[in-house]
Write a structure and sequence with these properties.
Strand order of the largest sheet: 8-14-15-12-13
Number of helices: 6
Distance between the termini: 130 Å
Largest sheet: 5 strands, mixed
Number of strands: 15
CATH topology of the largest domain: Ferric Hydroxamate Uptake Protein, Chain A, domain 1
Helix content: 10-25%
Radius of gyration: 45 Å
Order of helices and strands: HEEEEEEEHEHHEEEEEHEEH
CATH architecture of the largest domain: Beta Complex
Mean pLDDT: 77
CATH superfamily of the largest domain: TonB-dependent receptor, plug domain
Structural class: alpha+beta
Low-confidence stretches: 6-15, 173-180, 207-217, 265-269
Oligomer: single chain
Strand content: 25-35%
Length: 269
């Protein structure tokens, strides 16, 4: 008898419960704000209670999305997609309703990380100067540029050369401020260095022997001044000397000087 009364009570409670509210449907399409074209593979999230309840889905091939069986109440809709700014809006759903939503997304400006581009500049120079820098990049010699000359403020050309290995100025000659040039080797066995200025040889050892005095009493410091020089090439011997400066007098080393006036003359023809 007692069991029969429990069943009747349960039935009474079931009949007294309020009916569940009819669910709503939220459907829509994701579009490009500029072109109006659909945006597939976007993410749409519907949420309530400050995000404590939410559903998410991806838009289909034509940008469509659909959330069925959503209870009445206030909601927030957020759409995201790579390359676009997020789109956010609020909805209030009533019972047993269908809500159509059109979400338009604006393209986002993509800020890239800083990019450092390193390039080797090409000097706008005469053909002669291009040869100088080409040999400096690929050659075997010692090169002195105009920038190095200006940084050191030399009084004489030999001031730029005296610290190079195995080179020494020869004793002064009559009427000159320095010796006739540079030599290599000991005092007893000096070997004269050959000078070129603007591509022209300006001295040479005597034909009686390569290891002897110079034929011409040239003082390179009297011939050219540091403020006139654009570049200097120094080669230790015949093996290092480029073919355009090679001769039977260069066994003891070669110094090639390029002057500013030489560049102007060659550029102007």
């Amino acid at each position: 008898m007692r069991a029969h009364r429990v069943c009747l009570l349960a039935a009474a409670l079931l009949l007294a419960a309020p009916p569940a509210p009819a669910q709503s449907l939220v459907r829509g399409i994701l579009l490009d704000a500029a072109s109006g074209g659909p945006l597939p593979q976007g993410t749409v999230v519907i949420s309530a209670n400050r995000g404590r309840w939410q559903r998410a889905l991806r838009t289909d091939s034509v940008g469509g999305f659909e959330f069925p069986d959503v209870s009445p109440g206030p909601y927030r809709l957020r759409a995201t997609r790579l390359g676009y700014r997020d789109a956010v809006g609020d909805l209030v759903l009533t019972a047993d309703s269908v809500v159509d939503v059109e979400v338009r997304m604006a393209v986002a400006a993509v800020v890239l990380a800083p990019v450092t581009v390193t390039s080797r500049s090409t000097r706008d120079v005469s053909p002669v100067l291009r040869g100088f820098y080409s040999r400096m990049e690929h050659g075997l010699g010692r090169f002195i540029t105009r920038e190095e000359i200006e940084a050191r403020h030399p009084v004489r050309v030999t001031d730029m050369l005296r610290n190079l290995p195995n080179l020494r100025p020869t004793p002064p000659g009559m009427g000159t401020t320095t010796g006739p040039g540079l030599t290599q080797g000991s005092n007893a066995d000096r070997c004269a260095v050959v000078f070129f200025v603007d591509g022209m040889r300006v001295n040479q050892p005597s034909t009686s022997g390569l290891r002897s005095t110079l034929r011409h009493d040239l003082a390179i410091d009297d011939y050219v001044q540091p403020d006139e020089i654009e570049g200097i090439e120094v080669y230790r011997g015949e093996a290092d000397t480029p073919a355009e400066f090679s001769s039977r007098w260069v066994q003891c080393g070669t110094v090639v000087i390029w002057t500013r006036r030489g560049f102007r003359q060659r550029e102007g023809g």
